[in-house]
Amino acid sequence: MAIASGGGHWVELRRIFPAFAGADAVFASVHAHLRADVPVGSRYYTVRDATRWDKWGLVVLLCQVLWLLLRERPDVIVTTGAAPGYFALRFAKLIGARTIWLDSIANVDELSLSGRKIGRHADLWLTQWPHLASPQGPQYFGAVM
User: Considering the entire predicted model, what is its pTM?
Assistant: First the structure.
């Protein structure tokens, strides 16, 4: 499963779509029109867009992501961030999924807020910038996006 919020997070996730070629990939984001971006024949789900200032929206999003994970039961969850990815990674262990968090390439000076909060829960926590890597994470393996 590849999941991210809209805007730059989705653009960054799209950059790694070739990695899903040949896989039974499921995609999710916050706008229905983004379905046009996913490979033909792949499943796509729309979840609510919510921020930390929209508490009710976060509750709805949390429920939608949990339902999606229980329905699809992905083996691996990959995200470039924000709220949908955060919740997907937090619930991943309930279904035995492995997780990858790719922190936003736009965060040059510091890790994203959601990246700082989710990092210790991700099986693989990556940054696009070598100076943001640390022994505790995230790791830098090169600019993958």
Answer: 0.89
